[in-house]
Amino acid sequence: MVWIPSGSCELGPVDGFWVDACPVTNQEFAAFTRETGYCPVACREAGQIQWRYPEGWDDHPVTDVSWVDAVAYAAWAGKALPTEAEWACAAHDALACDTGGAQPGGTRPVATGSPNGYGLYDVFGGVREWTADWHPIGGPVPLKVVKGGTRTGQPQPVHGHAGNIGFRCVVRTG
User: Which residues does the UniProt record annotate as the domain Sulfatase-modifying factor enzyme-like (predicted)?
Assistant: First the structure.
């Protein structure tokens, strides 16, 4: 994990916090599902009883997980999802979008590009990432904020999942 000091960014002030240097990987998420028996939303929708990922993709970011799945993993790991402001403050130094090595329509192993000034990898150019925040767009489904990736993230339904959305976690000290 990487320490992000207290400060202010475009979305307001934040207290200092720890954040994962990389998005959560398939291998890390697999440990969670094995230990807990958790079956992500996408698996349940597909009628599967066990979560799997492509062979050889241990160190790729986990994707196709819903916000609910990400929160469940974070709780298991003793962490949380970052707020939109925390994510923005941690990412503020990521000026370049390094998409090198990603397969068309796919991902690449985490930490294969250069880190930002804080030491975070894959802030931009990788997967979009869930945050703890939501935007009341209207309608019956709450929409959660996703950030990063190769473009600005649009809010997504809580139970929604996509092959380009993953997450990283934070630990707050206060």
Answer: 14-92, 103-136
Q: Which domains does the chain have, with CATH numbers?
A: 2-172 (3.90.1580.10)
- The C-alpha atoms of residue 120 and residue 131 are separated, in whole angstroms, by 16
Residue 39's alpha-carbon distances to 42, 44, 72, 160, in angstroms, are 8, 7, 10, 15
- Which amino acid belongs to residue 13? P
Residue 74 scores a pLDDT above 90: yes
Residue among 81, 74, 63 nearest 132 (CA): 81
Report d(CA 10, CA 85) in Å as an integer: 8
- Using 50, 70 and 90 to split pLDDT, how confident is the model at 50? confident
At 2 the three-state DSSP class reads: strand
Measured distance CA(90)–CA(109) in Å, rounded = 20
Bridge partners of 166?
A: 129
pLDDT digits (tens, 9 = 90+) for 80-136: 999 999 998 998 755 444 444 445 457 889 998 889 999 999 988 788 899 998 876
Q: Is 134 within 8 Å of 160 (Cβ atoms)?
A: no
